Amino acid sequence: MKQIVMEKNNSSDGFLYEQLYLNIKKQIMEGDMYPGEKCPSLRSLAENLSISVTTVMQAYNQLTAEGYIKNKPGSGYYVESSLNSSNNDSVSKELFIDTEEFVNNKSDFIVDEEAFDFNRWKKCAAKIYTEYSESLLSGSDLKGELLLRNEIAKYLFRSRGVSADPNNIIIAAGTQQSILHLSRVLKKTGIKLIAMETPGYSPVKAMFTDAQFNVAEIPVTESGISINMLPSNISSAAYVNPSNQFPTGVVMPAAKRNEILKWAEDNNSFIIEDDYNSELRYFGKPLPTIKSLDTKDRVIYLGSFSSTLFSAIKISYMVLPEDLSKIFDEFRGQYSQTCSKAEQLTLAYYMSMNYYYTAIRKKRALYTKKLKALKDAFDKYKYDGIELINTNSGLFVTIRINSDRDASEYIEVAKRLGVYATYIEEISNPTQICISMYYSYIPLGSIELITNILINKWRSL
Question: Is the pTM of this model over 0.85?
Fold first, then answer.
């Protein structure tokens, strides 16, 4: 591939992104960029040409819309394989077999390269591999690396008001494994019943069901789970998202948090507080966690790093009450830690350098802008049959559409635009469908354009 160059000309030749678009299009058509070839990343091309990432994104968006290039999230942009070029035959396909297979295994969704600074993460990882490599030659504690548990304890006290003994913190390879560990512990206590919010997070419900628990579905009101409908006179556990209920976005008020604590104490039960995305609240001051209000040690606290760092890092944790932590200790020798020790130590060092706090602040600021841009775009291009709900926090918004069509049609439209969206069955009905749209994955400069196209295509359905 010839190096992409561009003369900055602000006269009648058009905007910078148009000049860049025409330059790349010419190289593709003349065969200087061959089908399947990877394009320069947004950041590297912007730096090479001394222009903004947004300008490169606009040019790439135009080329994508016209079918010259294709976005492969997690890998980058590639010249469309179906294009014919004058010198295509001179390129040996054998050279690209492995690359093509790798690219085809990627998802079709847009990702935002600006959402996380991997340079700092790589420096921390290099530190572990070069200066502490001897630590990687042995297995990890079943509870997780003590260095990481210490950093999590400091973080929870500083940011969420939770006082946690590192010995009661359990590291796991994602929330699903945390739930599996928790299921084993709860069974040892004799608990057989789990109360779940409805609508709620169905994967957790499925895991408890698979673990042979009875699951009671408790309705969610405008102030959270209906406490008067929780099991009484029987030991159980209630799974709740008090700071950002999935999928409604409801926040449980302080008074109700005290009520559910009283319920747990009176019924010898536990509260499973999943505080996912609590750091990513963009409007209003976050309420204290239920765990921080707990004086009777009845709260099991769950947290994860997938949304605050990057989705591929499957590191989660839970803080167990003292008695449950002792039960977990009984499993030593029966199970092994499956969360990467190298990633645990990298994260511990990353947090010790205060990079984690910086990353959260940066992400919160970026996502606040993205959410505002999305809401502004919906206000600008909306029509009567579409409504945004759950717009205060997290990684997605919920969209309610007045339609009796199959939700898969709307989701497929979003997918073709590179937008990740999922169907929320629990709050849909025969005349309305509800979809979670992950706006956080979309680059800020592309949100208005993508929203406009998305709404227009949905309207055409």
Answer: no
